[in-house]
């Protein structure tokens, strides 16, 4: 996999300052699917070219099981285009290697960040669902001159016809940060198939990389749908945030799905799987009255509201904005009175006792505790397990050991910038067992997602049940 970026704006070697990569040095970086190499084939005053080459480790690609899972055709893991055609893997490598440049930072020469450079970008093999026209549809509105040529299956046997790949060349006057972000978002959109879990964090990544251009792009619906792997809940969230930028009606964007994408397969995201497992634990406990502590934008609340067995549902959060988004996400104004009567949204902080949150059969802390500073966890424990004291408490949190399986994460990084910690399986087990002992609960631990034999599942779940009720 290869991409070259050429600047012809003298002094062209300023490209090295912007990329934080010296033209005289070749550098290599580990990424989740292999190794990325950065080098400069040319570095002159009038012309400077940087190349990023991604060598994909085919064994690691098979271990990831994102392309061609266990139920797929047996040779699919070995006979595919993934190591060669530009896709989400190259986008991840771009972010890993050029993250500072993508963020628009250049401490050595800050004046360069705002300069529009004469840039040329070449990708010899791009996987494009929609062919050359899709490439032009995505890049041309951003000010690029697009030369998209379909690669023949075999230039020596023309009767075999064309392949599904594009030899792509872009020319334009662009800020380097903008150019990199265009590639980061649009390469996986063209390929229409990411090689890693598409979680709620992807919405934040899309908003950051698309800042300043996505909200006005004529193909933004297509971009949002494909970038978020056709996951309707994530698309709705992204659409709502785009609507806040330009004042559009979220519903009009959310419903503007192209016919070709309406039939696209939709794999279950980790967020959806997590909610499904939480709902299953609540059903198993026989709970009908549930409080979601730290409900955020209401993803779990919607699943609970759609299930008539949950007769009273309360979503509590410290963020008024999150509660407003939850209300919009639940479409309460469009639901019948019987459904609206089953749900309440309350502004409440987990570190303080709130009488309104007592007396429920079950409580949920889904992806909440890791957002709390460790010294304040004792206050949350007192609020939930000591004061509110539901019969059943369901807690989920990321498994830090699984982070090695996420290509976006460098060693030691958390899955979300607001996380205060992320626990290993042993750390979560120790915390859960200690809370259960102190509070008079019994606890059992369950995996959420594929339980990797080396690092465990991506999410860990604990079900607490009040001991005196169990007895």
UniProtKB/TrEMBL annotation:
One Pfam family hit: Hen1_L
Give the catalysed reaction(s), semicolon-separated.
small RNA 3'-end nucleotide + S-adenosyl-L-methionine = small RNA 3'-end 2'-O-methylnucleotide + S-adenosyl-L-homocysteine + H(+)
UniProt-listed GO biological process terms: regulatory ncRNA-mediated gene silencing; RNA methylation
InterPro entries cross-referenced by the UniProt entry: 3'-RNA_MeTfrase_Hen1_bac (IPR024026), Hen1 (IPR026610), Hen1_N (IPR024740), Hen1_N_sf (IPR038546), SAM-dependent_MTases_sf (IPR029063)
One Gene Ontology MF term: small RNA 2'-O-methyltransferase activity
Start and end of every Hen1 N-terminal domain? 1-243
- State its Enzyme Commission number(s): 2.1.1.386
Required cofactor(s): Mg(2+)
What are the entry keywords? Answer: Magnesium, Metal-binding, Methyltransferase, RNA-binding, RNA-mediated gene silencing, S-adenosyl-L-methionine, Transferase
Give the family, as the similarity comment puts it.
Belongs to the methyltransferase superfamily. HEN1 family.
Kindly provide the name given to this protein in its UniProt entry.
Answer: Small RNA 2'-O-methyltransferase
What does UniProt list as this organism's lineage? Bacteria, Bacillati, Actinomycetota, Actinomycetes, Pseudonocardiales
